């Protein structure tokens, strides 16, 4: 737990008991999770608290939000050293059509894209869809 507390503090997030539990849950999952997944895991917790925790994590660069095309936003922990900058920290995501899981492929970075003059990028997301290694049996 001390390592999680240090990680949260390094991002200027006060390590409350609920924040530590949510961080630990997300770290153990190793896949992107939706708010409903967290609600189901912490059924006795207040939904607003869970939502606010995710939003705080997102604002402070603890997690990033993924739009995988399912209509449900998912969240994944940022890798160490990530600051979620468009020019530096973008990576691929993979959504499995079979098991419906979305994973970060952090080792596959998205190269910087030069937009035409006058265009300002605010967000970017690249999701590959197909069958994951677990479902393909390879």
From TrEMBL:
<protein>
    <submittedName>
        <fullName>Transcriptional repressor</fullName>
    </submittedName>
</protein>
<dbReference type="InterPro" id="IPR002481">
    <property type="entry name" value="FUR"/>
</dbReference>
<dbReference type="Pfam" id="PF01475">
    <property type="entry name" value="FUR"/>
</dbReference>
<dbReference type="InterPro" id="IPR036390">
    <property type="entry name" value="WH_DNA-bd_sf"/>
</dbReference>
<dbReference type="InterPro" id="IPR036388">
    <property type="entry name" value="WH-like_DNA-bd_sf"/>
</dbReference>
């Amino acid at each position: 737990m001390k390592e999680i507390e240090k990680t949260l503090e390094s991002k200027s997030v006060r390590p409350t008991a609920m924040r530590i539990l949510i961080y630990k849950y997300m770290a153990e999952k190793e896949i992107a999770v939706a708010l409903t997944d967290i609600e189901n895991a912490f059924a006795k917790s207040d939904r607003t608290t869970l939502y606010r925790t995710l939003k705080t994590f997102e604002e402070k660069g603890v997690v990033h939000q993924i739009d995988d095309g399912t209509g449900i936003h998912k969240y994944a922990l940022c890798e160490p050293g990530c600051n979620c900058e468009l020019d530096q920290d973008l990576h691929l995501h993979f959504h499995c059509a079979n098991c419906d899981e979305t994973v970060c492929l952090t080792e596959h970075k998205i190269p910087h894209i030069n937009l035409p003059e006058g265009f300002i990028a605010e967000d970017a997301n690249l999701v590959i869809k197909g069958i994951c290694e677990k479902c393909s049996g390879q």
